[in-house]
């Protein structure tokens, strides 16, 4: 039985952060302003609190100034729009990130569309989405860009590769498919209505799983030697009563015996998301100040 290479997302994320940090050091020495990231959390979702804390901590480590905004769960849409408007105008802020999900009384799309596209380090604004599709310069969503970076590190050129993206969310699936297309891969987007998903999957050289269903992708769905990128983060009951554990959208123990390379959960794509956010803040800052930006890795 073969064994896939297990991609160490923590190690690659550390490389990305180091590249961001050294670029910031060089730019600052030349008189560039301190890059600034505003992170907004509404409510007290425990997972979101962890992600936001990590974003602020990692930002500080690479030399990005972070502005933390913790708002109560009852915050109104108008209040949040007011904060976004202030951040849009704040010259110390180059990136604005509103942590998702937002509470039910707030229309998330309305908030995302209020963020100035030049400060949209999540890449969720329709301006950046359109730019990604049409091929112009764009801020690109962090998780798919992290996946792309890992794929290019593993495979080199993606040109002509068959890729399947499982899931069609605005945050991962759709931008992932566009990024793969931009690299001249042949892209299939699969979803809950796709017929014979296992067979579609078996044709792919690259599988990106982003459906949010624990261990849905089985080992026999994977083409031998394929690259498997698992975006799922699902908390399920552990063997020990009362405990939970994290699993991805891929049945790892099965897939690892078939794939050529695979990302684990945790420690695969997740850490890349925050590292790429820092990269995006640097890119936004460089564009806003007409400074050179060099791609990380
Ligand atoms: N505004 C945004 N909201 C959300 C995004 C986003 O990109 N922008 N993505 C996710 C949450 N997220 C970052 O915000 C995120 C998720 C997971 C990880 C991560 O490092 N995961 C670890 C495991 C963590 C754990 O133990 O729970 C891993 O996979 O190793 C980082 C960031 C939704 N919201
Ligand atoms: Mg994400």
TrEMBL record:
Q: Which GO terms describe its biological process?
A: L-histidine biosynthetic process; methionine biosynthetic process; purine nucleotide biosynthetic process; tetrahydrofolate interconversion
Subunit structure, as described in the record = Homodimer.
Q: Output this protein's name.
A: Bifunctional protein FolD
Q: Which Pfam families match?
A: THF_DHG_CYH, THF_DHG_CYH_C
Report the GO molecular function annotations: methenyltetrahydrofolate cyclohydrolase activity; methylenetetrahydrofolate dehydrogenase (NADP+) activity
Q: Which NCBIfam families match?
A: PRK10792.1 (NF008058), PRK14186.1 (NF010783), PRK14188.1 (NF010785)
Q: What PANTHER family does this protein map onto?
A: C-1-TETRAHYDROFOLATE SYNTHASE, CYTOPLASMIC (PTHR48099:SF5), C-1-TETRAHYDROFOLATE SYNTHASE, CYTOPLASMIC-RELATED (PTHR48099)
Q: Which organism is it from?
A: Telmatospirillum siberiense
Can the keyword Oxidoreductase be found in this entry's annotation?
yes
- Gene Ontology, cellular component aspect: cytosol
Gene coding for it: folD
């Amino acid at each position: 039985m073969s064994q896939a290479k297990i991609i160490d997302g923590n190690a690659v994320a550390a490389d990305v952060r180091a590249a961001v940090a050294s670029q910031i050091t060089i730019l600052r020495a030349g008189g560039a302003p301190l890059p600034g990231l505003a992170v907004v959390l509404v409510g007290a979702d425990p997972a979101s609190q962890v992600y936001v804390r990590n974003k602020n901590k990692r930002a500080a480590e690479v030399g990005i100034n972070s502005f933390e905004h913790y708002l109560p769960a009852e915050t109104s849409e108008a209040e949040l729009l007011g904060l976004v408007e202030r951040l849009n105008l704040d010259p110390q802020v180059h990136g604005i990130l509103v942590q998702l999900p937002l509470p039910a009384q707030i229309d998330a799309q309305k908030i995302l569309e209020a963020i100035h596209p030049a400060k949209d380090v999540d890449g969720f604004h329709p301006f950046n989405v359109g730019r990604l599709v049409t091929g112009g310069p764009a801020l690109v969503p962090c998780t798919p860009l992290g996946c792309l970076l890992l794929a290019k590190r593993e495979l080199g050129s993606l040109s002509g590769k068959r890729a399947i993206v499982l899931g069609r969310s605005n945050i991962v699936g759709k931008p992932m498919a566009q990024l793969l297309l931009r690299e001249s891969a042949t892209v299939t987007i699969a979803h809950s209505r796709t017929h014979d998903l296992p067979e579609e999957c078996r044709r792919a050289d690259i599988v990106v799983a982003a459906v949010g269903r624990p261990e849905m992708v089985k080992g026999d769905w994977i083409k031998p030697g394929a690259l498997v990128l698992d975006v799922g983060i699902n908390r399920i009951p552990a063997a020990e009563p009362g405990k939970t554990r994290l699993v991805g959208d891929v049945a790892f123990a099965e897939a690892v015996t078939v794939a050529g390379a695979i990302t684990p959960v945790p420690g695969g794509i997740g850490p890349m998301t925050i590292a790429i956010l820092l990269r995006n803040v640097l890119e936004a800052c460089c564009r806003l100040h007409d400074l050179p930006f060099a791609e990380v890795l």
